[in-house]
Fold:
Amino acid sequence: QVQLVESGGGLVQPGGSLRLSCAASGRIFSINVMGWYRQAPGKERELVATLSSGGSTNYADSVKGRFTISRDNAKNTVYLQMNSLKSDDTAVYYCNVDLWHPRGTYWGQGTQVTVSS
Structure:
């Protein structure tokens, strides 16, 4: 089966940076979209950034200019570079992959990002 393993979360001061990684493994033959979502306590899960197989990106307005999504196709890994972090960025961040083959949408286990002084 398909598995997504996330890493890179942690505690950082406001204005600092973190890079999240999500490695997909298993029988993956065709990727549609890879992305990142986040969920703060008591709030709905929200889109952070997506990256299509064709290279198109989409960002939430709240992170534009600060976050960058990228990928390494050879490693089936998607990254989220987070700069100029704010306390409002504190959340559990989830990797998401939508596949054509095998068809389906898959989620990582989540990694905690805490921005605090």
Remarks:
- The mean pLDDT is 95.
- Residues 59 and 113 are 18 Å apart (CA to CA).
